[in-house]
């Protein structure tokens, strides 16, 4: 029997090799398509329906930031009402000493936050999140000490104060979900408060919010989207934002250390070993981001590999060219406090359910400002 089999294989070796080659090719094609899939596949229809309803993109008609007219006239915000009363004790005890007002005798607070936004003038719009620890329960942070929360609030407030003084930042759009955070901010009498534009969100920030807001309200505007503890640094005046727009280029930057702010020494992830972290994204949209891509980006920004999923979606679906010129465009990570998000295993990454995003991309540091492929 074996002899007959070997004789058959020998006489039909071409046919056998063809079958083996087809099988190998089929397996490779299947694995390649699976690895390049950019769709968010949820575990089951019931979970998909539930989580999608909870994480819906905010509707344009209900957003605090809205278009007043289709021309170059001012776009109108709906800012939070000026808060000139003492904060609740549960909120006040979370505020760092250097950012406290006289709690018992709060009088007239200087209200100088902007209520209109104009497209004229050079510079970038910084979109960032702002949610302080104010005594409210936050998932993943329930075991943090009061002192750790105070220290973290100091870092958030110090970062905003520095960023509004940056010469290349003409406005800062603050995305917040907790009214108490804005009450604290409204009691700060900073020199450049007029650059701040608060924007109330229905939930904590998702990656899609940066591109949804830019598509609707900041089209053809240079935008920096960054985490709330990222300080904008040097050389942003070197960016040719027209070329950035016309070549569909995204700069996604790896952060440096903390630039001496705080009581620790943080290593630069740009100049040292590269881990794939990107906390700042610079772009100028020529056209709105499609709804399908926004849906794929509709996940919390504080998940592991959140920015890597965003890079993958922009490269594959929107055909952006992505560079990481962090040695030139410097940003700093203001995070000396010991606070870190702690979730159950299987809930920390965009790879986990219900997001299940499989396409992960990074961009290694380069020492020049490139545009286009």
Folded structure, characterized:
The chain has 10 helices and 11 strands. The chain has helices spanning 2-11, 13-35, 45-54, 89-92, 146-163, 179-185, 207-217, 241-246, 291-296, 306-316, and strands at 75-76, 116-117, 124-129, 169-176, 196-200, 223-226, 230-232, 249-253, 280-283, 321-323, 331-333. The protein has a 7-stranded mixed sheet. Strands 1-2 form a two-stranded antiparallel sheet. Strands 7-11 form a two-stranded antiparallel sheet. Strand 3 (124-129), helix 5 (146-163) and strand 4 (169-176) form a beta-alpha-beta unit.
Most strands sheet? 7 strands, mixed
- The unreliable regions are 31-80, 106-111
Number of helices: 10
Mean pLDDT across residues: 76
Structural class: alpha/beta
Helix content class: 25-40%
Beta-strand residue percentage: 5-15%
What order do the SSEs take from the amino end to the carboxyl end, as H and E? HHHEHEEHEHEHEEHEEHHEE
Overall 3D shape: elongated
Spatial order of the strands forming the largest sheet: 5-4-3-6-9-8-10
| First-residue to last-residue Cα separation | 60 Å
How big is the Rg?
Answer: 25 Å
Number of strands: 11
Give the helix/strand layout:
Blueprint (H helix, E strand, L loop, with lengths): L1 H10 L1 H23 L9 H10 L20 E2 L12 H4 L23 E2 L6 E6 L16 H18 L5 E8 L2 H7 L10 E5 L6 H11 L5 E4 L3 E3 L8 H6 L2 E5 L26 E4 L7 H6 L9 H11 L4 E3 L7 E3 L40
Parallel strand pairs: 3-4, 3-6, 4-5, 8-10
Antiparallel strand pairs: 1-2, 6-9, 7-11, 8-9
């Amino acid at each position: 029997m074996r002899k007959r089999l070997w004789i058959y294989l020998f006489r039909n070796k071409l046919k056998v090799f063809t079958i083996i080659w087809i099988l190998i090719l089929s397996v490779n094609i299947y694995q390649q398509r699976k690895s390049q899939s950019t769709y968010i596949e949820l575990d089951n229809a019931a979970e998909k329906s539930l989580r999608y309803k909870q994480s819906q993109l905010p509707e344009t008609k209900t957003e605090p930031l809205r278009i007043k007219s289709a021309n170059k006239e001012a776009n109108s915000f709906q800012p939070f009402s000026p808060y000139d009363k003492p904060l609740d004790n549960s909120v006040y005890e979370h505020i760092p000493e250097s950012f406290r007002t006289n709690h018992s005798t709060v009088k007239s607070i200087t209200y100088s936050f902007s209520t209109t936004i104009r497209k004229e003038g050079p510079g970038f719009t910084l979109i960032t999140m702002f949610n302080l620890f104010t005594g409210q329960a936050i998932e993943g942070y329930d075991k943090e000490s009061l002192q750790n929360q105070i220290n973290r609030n100091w870092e958030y407030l110090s970062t905003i104060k520095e960023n509004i003084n940056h010469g290349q930042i003409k406005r800062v759009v603050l995305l917040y979900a907790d009214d108490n955070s804005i009450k604290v901010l409204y009691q700060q009498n900073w020199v450049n408060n007029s650059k701040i534009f608060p924007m109330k969100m229905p939930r904590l920030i998702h990656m899609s919010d940066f591109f949804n807001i830019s598509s609707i309200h900041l089209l053809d505007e240079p935008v920096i989207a960054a985490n709330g503890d990222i300080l904008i640094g040097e050389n942003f005046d070197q960016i040719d934002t027209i070329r950035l727009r016309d070549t569909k280029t995204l700069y996604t930057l790896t952060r440096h250390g903390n630039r001496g702010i705080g009581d620790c020494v943080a290593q630069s992830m740009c100049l040292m070993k590269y881990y794939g972290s990107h906390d700042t994204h610079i772009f100028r949209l020529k056209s709105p981001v499609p709804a399908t891509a926004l849906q794929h980006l509709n996940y919390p920004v504080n998940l592991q590999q959140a920015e890597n999923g965003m890079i993958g979606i922009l490269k594959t679906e929107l055909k952006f060219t992505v560079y990481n010129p962090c040695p030139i465009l410097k940003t700093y990570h203001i995070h000396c406090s010991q606070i870190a998000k702690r979730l159950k295993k299987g809930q920390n990454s965009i790879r986990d359910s219900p997001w299940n995003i499989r396409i992960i991309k990074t961009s290694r540091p380069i020492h020049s400002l490139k545009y286009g492929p």
